[in-house]
Amino acid sequence: MFPIRCPFLLILPLLVSPLGAQADFPTTTIAQQQAAAYLKPLPDNGVVPLSVIAGDFASNQTAAIGKYNGQRITVIGRIASLSQGNSENKVLVVTLQDAGATLPAVKAEFLLGSLPENSELEISQDGSMATMIKRDRTGVILSRQPYLSVDQRVAIKGSYKEIRVGDIVLTDCKLEPKSKVREASGGN
User: Fold this and answer.
1) Cα 164 from chain centroid?
2) Cα separation of 111 and 91, whole Å?
3) Taken in order 46, 50, 55, 60, is the CA torsion positive or negative?
4) CATH code for position 147
5) Host domain of residue 33
6) Which three-class secondary structure state does DSSP give residue 93?
7) pLDDT for residue 1
8) Percent helix / strand / coil, the chain, rounded to 5
9) Which of 27, 66, 85, 145 has the most crowded Cβ, counting Cβ within 10 A?
10) pLDDT value of residue 120
């Protein structure tokens, strides 16, 4: 009887583990095929309005992962909130979301190297304003300038990382010039 149970015990984990993995990580080929079938292709310049990326993930998450996975994109949209990064490598998290919060949010993670040297960000207690503080080499504050604020329309360039609790996460982000926002808005 032992020889009959032994092969079954060895085969059972092999049968169960691929099923669980498919639910969490769609295969790249299937996701890319779905992206091509269901979603408009990513523009050559990589600039995507917030409504497009959020709409893609709301309508077909698997296809959206296939479209954005491994891509460095620029998302243009409205800042809904600002927060301090939750690790020593993240200095700022900018949440882009439509005013009605009807679509998924984009969380843009700014990493340590995204700020100029001898600079730091200070986030207001209510998360509505980020101020850039520049210091000299000895630590003396040279200037304090507004950097970002809630309801500001911005262009943020980052690499698609993952979906986390329904939010689209971009990492290694940087703020694009205001001209990029105007260019994508048709000069308005």
Assistant:
1) 9
2) 6
3) positive
4) 2.40.50.140
5) 2-184
6) strand
7) 47
8) 35, 35, 30
9) 66
10) 87
